[in-house]
Structure formats: C-alpha cells, structure tokens
Amino acid sequence: MTPFASGADLKDALRRHDYIADDEFATVVHLATALERPLLLEGPAGVGKTELAKALAAVGGRKLVRLQCYEGLDDSRALYEWDYAKQLLHVQMLRDRIGELLAGHADLAAASKFLAQQDFGLYSETFLSVRPLLEAVLSEEPVVLLVDEVDRTEESMEALLLEVLAERQVTIPEVGTFTARSTPWVILTSNDTRELSPALKRRCLHYHVGYPTPEREREIVTARVPDVRPGTAHQIVDLSRTLRDLPLRKSPSISEVIDAARAATVMGHDAGDPDSLGGMRDVLLATLLKYTGDVDLAKARLGGAGAGTVVAEPIVSEPVPSSERVTVASRPANTTTAVFRGRGGGGRDAAGSGLRG
Questions:
Q1: pLDDT tens digit string along 176-186?
Q2: Integer distance in angstroms from the first to the last C-alpha of the chain?
Q3: pTM of the shown model
Q4: Which of 75, 85, 239, 259 lies at a CB distance of 3.0 to 4.6 Å from 79, suitable for a disulfide?
Q5: What sign results for the dihedral spanned by CA atoms 278, 284, 286, 291?
Q6: Cβ(260)–Cβ(240) under 8 Å?
C-alpha cells in the first residue's frame, strides 16, 4: 500500500529530500507503488535513476536493498549461496555422534542406506548466505529493491529476476519457496547499453529518464549545492548543455554538473563577472568531461568564447580519388547503430532528475 495520495504528493515528498521530479515522472513512480509493479527506468547514465530509488526509500520509510549488476553476475551473488565452511564445521561436530550410530550396522551398504535416510540439517535457512534478491524477500521490514544497471548482465540473469518481479518470491530447491513478507517497491535501471528482453519489460512499468530542462537542471543544482549563486548555476548549466550538443564520447551527467557547480563555488566564481567562468572553464572541464578526446574537442570548439558559446570550425576534407571513394552501399551494415537508433538521451527531454543513473 502506498503512503502517497497522488503523484503530486509523492513529488512534494521527493522534493523535501532534494530529488526534483517533474509531474509526469512523479505520477509514473506513484503508479508503480500503488499498483505494486516494478518500475524500469531507462536512459543515459547520470540522470537520476539510481538516486530515485534512494530518495524513494527515504520518503517511504523503507530499507534500501541494492543489487549492483555486472557482467558475469550469477545466482550465487544475486540470490543466495550455501555457506560450505559452516556446513563442514557442522558435519565435523556431528562426526563422533555419526560414528556411534554407524557402529551398529553390519556392513557398508547398511551404513550407507542409514546415512541416506538421515537429515543432518545441512540444507536449511541456517546455512544460507543471503544475497540481495533473497534479502528483499526475507526482510521483516518493507524494502525498496534497486536492481541497478540490469543491462550489464546477460539474459540468463534477467530470467532469474522474473520470479522475484512477477511472484515476489524465491524458490530454493533444497528448502522450498520463500514469499515476500511485504511487497517490495522494485526499481530497475538501465543505461541503454543493450536491449532488454520482452519478458522482463512485460513485468514492469517503463519510463525513459532523459536530461532535464534547463530550468529543472538549475533547480537541481541549487538544491544540491545551496552555496552556489544563481548566476553561477545558470552559467554552469548553459555550459553543460552546450557540451551535450557536441559529439562527445560521454556527455556531462547531472552529477557532474553538480560537481562543476561545487568547484566553481570553491574557486570563488563571480556570477556578476561575465569573464569569470571563462577563466576557470578549462578547470571545470575536468569535472564535466572524463575523456581526453572529449576535453580536446570541447576546448577546440569553445575556443576563446564565453561560457555556453560554441565556435563553429570549418570541416576541411581532402579530396578522395573516385576509385577509392567509399559509399554507404560498400560498407557493412552497422547493426549496433540500427538497434539503438532512436534510443538514448534524445527521447524525453523534461524527464525526472536527481544525481546519478
């Protein structure tokens, strides 16, 4: 049962925890809690997908359980595994008692049959090492389950999630089925590095989280960096949006814009001086950009112009002999581009926001 009367009520609650969401995003999150359905958030890294789960746990008074996904993640790290060392110690403690019980059997076959009929309690809850998915199911208190960056795993891991998402339960063959004591609020995040399976998407509500509008991004910056001057926040946001228009390997995320605002505040940026940010712009690029090639491109394009201004550079191309001309037809199809065309950060512009994806 959701404690929020409406999306607007949830939006106000999130705002009190410095998470700024727009009306549409807040309404979708409210529906996910009210309908008790998992919510899949897709979009570029750093637009507030992960931060939503943290804020939702705070406003809902719930425990946050996080499964950080990565390539090679398996059930022993996501669901549970048996504590073999503890099981071995248990067997060693029973060794003398087992010897006494076997002494009355005439031959090995009889002793083996006797042992097979015994339950030594090795496969019970006592010897389970609980991992995030099972922890969310077994938790005595309500939880927010965050499955972060689910697109980094293989499809086999997605299949493992289906029982938890659909039935809110985990089946352990040796023990039985554990059903959640309370319905967890489930948030899954994806950075669009690969297409997720229809089976996973079918069990979730879906929302694409893109970069926020300039007004909302300035609101986020001022909420997260209370000491920043409004003029500084305005210029930092304009600079970041200019950088996002460039063909960068990685565009600045909201968390990096916040870092830039903090850096400008520490360096004493004078919002009233139009040249102040330009003087420290190269230093701020260290907070906004993470690849040397991106920094070089940004410096070349920005040139000596003020913050937020791109200097257009002519593109000079050398003539290519007709015999060596490469046409689209002569190149192999770019299947990766075909798969992801129309996805990523170019979708919804005024989506929710926060800190990190």
A1: 888 898 899 99
A2: 26
A3: 0.75
A4: 75
A5: negative
A6: yes
